[in-house]
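U., I forgot to send this yesterday:
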Amino acid sequence: MEDFAFHDIYPNLVETDQVFDLERSAQVTAAASEPFGTDYVQSLCLAMTGGWQHAYPSQGKRSGAYMSGSVYDVGPYVLLNHQDTYDSASTFVHEWGHAMHTILAYEQQPFETARYSIFIAETAAITKEVLAQEKLLDAAQTDEERLFFLGYALEQMRGTYFRQTQFAEFEAAIHAAVENGESLTGARMTEIYTDIFNRYYGVEDGVTIVPESYNLEWAYIPHFFFDFYVYQYSTSLAAAVYFAEKIRAGDEDSINAYIEMLEAGGSAHPYDLKVKAGLDMASPDPYRAVEDRMNRIMDEIEAILDRQDSGIAAPPRVTVALSNPCAVGES
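Result:
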């Protein structure tokens, strides 16, 4: 595209006619969980069929998706608004990642230390998403299928790693302005946001065109009106990519340490829990893992597009059919 605008980021690279109904979404979730062992998968299957979710939209139901684990002695509850799309399936995987984290922590911890931090919670959910993406890529039979899943994975990293870091920089800037005695008006906040937005998307270098209306985006992002925490989405994704690589490689010590981190709930500081699981978030390792994953994905996308432009047939691939450890219907 000659004139690439910010809104051009959002459409999928390619479309898919695949249907991800509730049963297939549960299949993807269970298949992504197989590295964690039979006991974990069995617990997940029982939970997904145990009446602990409300999956489809209905009259009067709130929008979005979330997991509630507020009651210590009772299983977690998952609210979804499933649309039978891959985006819905990814959300399904994410929320059941939270739910299984809750189950593990509540089984192993007393009430006082069972509740966990966002920093661990989002890592648990996003790790499951990355594992699900890789399972679907392993099963993809055509270049178009691979392009769809690769594009989705790339957009997840832009939205959760790059964009949330942009948000965190804005939050830090407005907090710093107040601490320095500056009065924050809407115009001033728009000015700060515009400067950061333009730098992140290369506006002055002609990389992206950002319509002026987008500079008001800060005003309707609810995260900015709560505690300063959005950076934890970025760091959690970095940790998730790092852990997913270890888990995919079949490193049993890493898998066991990861499960122990989830079972630990809130019994220690989240940074220390990740160190014990084999990851120091103060080191470059998790952030390099994200960069490596982004580069691998973009390299494969470019290779597929170059091959298609040249009329070269796709090389034969050995695909791995998606397993079906359990099935689930509407609850």
